[in-house]
Amino acid sequence: MQLDDLKKLMKGVVIVQITPFNKDGSLDLEGFRANTRWLLKRTAGRDFILNPLGTTGEFSSMSDDECQAIIKMVVEEVKGQVPVFVGAGRAGTQQTIKMCQYAESVGVDGVQVILPYYLIPQEEGMYQHYRLIAESVNIAVMVYNNPAVSGCWIRPPLMTRLSKIPNIIACKENTPNLLSYVQMKKAIDPKDMAILCGLGEQMFSYQAIYGCPGFVSSYANVFPDYSYSVYQAAAGGDFDKIDDIIRSMAPFSRFIGKVNANHGPGTGLSDGVPTFISVVKAAMDIMGLRGGEVRLPLVGLTEDEKVELGKILKDLKIKS
């Protein structure tokens, strides 16, 4: 797909796909395939983007061979029906380039590249990191600006420089600060780069007022219609409706908070607790999809928690 055409599609709901694992910890590639087919049926003709191997996909707990098997499979299943942006970022530049080049070789539309975590560069190092990655491939690049998992954040002036690199066309912006998002949105020419909300439906409801074109969702693995209704309400300027839609999912959101408290205390220095991954996976299993297990260091739900979640889903009248 040409970059100009792809830029026009940087809107809607980006589904950051879960990665199902078997009880013995192995990759359930066929389960991932089944989930992808289900999503394609539910998203046909609408503004969706598939994003395997993001944070929700637990890429950091997987080998390169496993990641490559997933990338190849998703591209084969999608066949151009929706854009596919795969998580290809690694801590180092050379390792990231290798994964991006593999992704290009099997036909992805673009790569999502997390900030270079662990050894945090200065701004010039950050710029050169993304410049070299972008120049090493002929596909689109999405910057994953996530301070919670990387310990760094690209500020608006540097993001503006990056947006002028032709194939860096989008940013998955994960700042939890609304003012920071607004400053980023104002700094970037939308013809150069789309600034997407990386923190899901509720944060999108605030950012949409400032022209946010779409958001990244883990919920959409199991509730794609819910996620899309939030996007449609924003596109129509009906912010009261957005509030009503999000309130309708409050029991599920509260349950995630409850599970987090049940499994606490946390060890992180930020609020980025990935309990939601375990909950989304359990919800998928309950609804007949392939959620599967999480990999350590994450811990799954207890049997009692799964029973409680099943009751919540029944009350919400969610159907697979």
Description:
The protein has 320 residues and is α/β, with parallel strands linked by helices. The protein has a single domain, classed as Aldolase class I (TIM Barrel, Alpha-Beta Barrel). It is 48% helix and 12% strand. The chain has a five-stranded parallel sheet with strand order 3-4-5-6-7. Strand 1, helix 2 and strand 2 form a beta-alpha-beta unit. Helix 7 runs parallel beside helix 8, helix 12 runs antiparallel to helix 14 and helix 13 crosses helix 14. The longest helix has 15 residues. The two termini are 31 Å apart. The mean pLDDT is 95.
Report strand order across the widest sheet.
3-4-5-6-7
Low-pLDDT runs: none
Estimate the global geometry from the Cα principal axes.
globular
The average pLDDT score comes to 95
Number of helices: 14
**Rg (C-alpha, Å):** 18 Å
Secondary structure class reads: alpha/beta
The CATH class name reads Alpha Beta
CATH superfamily: Aldolase class I
Estimate what percentage of residues fall within beta strands.
5-15%
Element order, helices and strands? HEHEHEHEHEHHEHEHEHHHHH
CATH architectural label:
Alpha-Beta Barrel
Which percent bin holds the helix content?
Answer: 40-55%
Rounded to the nearest angstrom, the distance between the terminal CA atoms is 31 Å
Number of strands: 8
Largest pleated sheet = 5 strands, parallel
- Estimate nothing, just give the exact number of structural domains: 1
- Named CATH topology: TIM Barrel
